[in-house]
Write a structure and sequence with these properties.
mainly alpha, Alpha-Beta Plaits, 342 residues
């Protein structure tokens, strides 16, 4: 592989060389969190503000973040950094500082990394918007509210599966696959899961437990000193990573059928932040009786709202439900400040 290979979007590589071994990445992510906290205070047009934050976040990751801040890399970096404590403190800090920042902000302010900052989530939302336009063009729904998968939707999924297999075989003729390319298994699983959910073979809520299995696999592989590369990793690092690129393409296409499909079914980091959200300081709670209009359910990208109540472990804190509720029945609550017994 050419050691001088550099993705075209890393045009700032030369100016940033002097910052090598510094903590520019940590400062970048902290700045993103602080920007998001300010943006979350907006009441009018908050979702437009959120999309602007997502665009800024993508730019930050593409230009400034060189370590893998992906859905697998966050877990791997944390474990690896912890193993260095007591031997190489500066390198340990480098590996654990970003994931620990995400964990700290999640506990104190909610899992808004998923809903506002994560580039994997942002790419999926953009894809979901394209999917909505396609549905309107065909004049028929194509989602979880459908009694069955439309014929044209079945055809698209089938075509995409065949194309995916073809691309995998093609890559297999150009390079030798290694364990780090195993994200392709997650991609294949995602295609299958989306198909099964849309044909009602499995329940959307039930198979979300698979995220825990995904987390266990990535966590365990880290102790075996095996690096499974995340989707979107090809945009973070100075490497050619076709498996990561193909996996990213799969999750983007999958989100055209089911919004944030990767987040729902296979994201290990999202599952972990959902667990943390159960003990976090801020949550979205109902302050009155639900009128049953379904407005909050319609705008939730991960179907975490049912009957006016938010499922804490699935919420990504995008606040779309809070902004859409016509009765202002949903609000962000500091549960740590609530008196005992409330």
């Amino acid at each position: 592989m050419d050691s001088n290979y550099m993705p075209l979007w890393k045009v700032l590589d030369a100016p940033l060389m002097s910052l090598d071994e510094s903590h520019v990445e940590l400062f970048s992510i902290l700045a993103m969190f602080l920007l998001t906290l300010l943006a979350m205070l907006a009441r009018r047009h908050r979702q437009w503000v959120r999309h602007m934050v997502q665009l800024v976040s993508i730019a930050v990751f593409l230009y400034l973040v060189y370590s893998c801040l992906g859905v697998f890399g966050m877990i791997r970096n944390t474990v690896y950094g912890i193993t260095l404590i007591g031997s190489i403190y500066t390198e340990s800090f480098f590996w654990i500082s970003l994931p620990l920042s995400v964990i700290a902000f999640t506990i104190t302010s909610g899992p808004y990394f998923c809903g506002w900052i994560c580039p994997t989530g942002a790419f999926q939302e953009a894809s979901a918007a394209i999917g909505k336009l396609v549905r309107r063009m065909f004049g028929r729904p194509m989602g979880l509210g459908n009694p069955r998968l439309p014929a044209w939707g079945l055809t698209l999924l089938g075509f995409w599966f065949v194309a995916f297999i073809g691309m995998v075989f093609y890559l297999g003729t150009t390079k030798r696959f290694y364990v780090e390319d195993s994200s392709l298994y997650w991609a294949a699983s995602l295609i299958l899961l989306v198909f099964m959910v849309m044909t009602r073979a499995v329940d959307d809520q039930a198979i979300r437990a698979l995220r825990a299995i995904s987390f266990t696999i990535i966590f365990g592989s880290t102790f075996l000193k095996t690096a499974i590369i995340s989707p979107v990793h090809f945009a973070f690092a100075d490497v050619q990573d076709p498996a990561s690129a193909l996996t990213t393409l799969v999750l983007v296409v999958a989100s055209m059928f089911i919004s944030r499909a990767w987040c729902r079914y296979v994201c290990p980091w999202g599952w972990f932040l959902g667990r943390l959200h159960k003990i976090s300081r801020l949550r979205i709670l109902s302050k009155g009786s639900c009128m049953g209009c379904g407005a909050c359910e319609d705008v939730c990208n991960v179907d975490a709202v049912q009957a006016g109540k938010v499922k804490v472990e699935q919420c990504q804190f995008c606040m779309a439900c809070v902004d859409r509720c016509p009765k202002d029945n949903l609000e962000v609550v500091d549960v740590w400040a609530k008196p005992d017994g409330d």
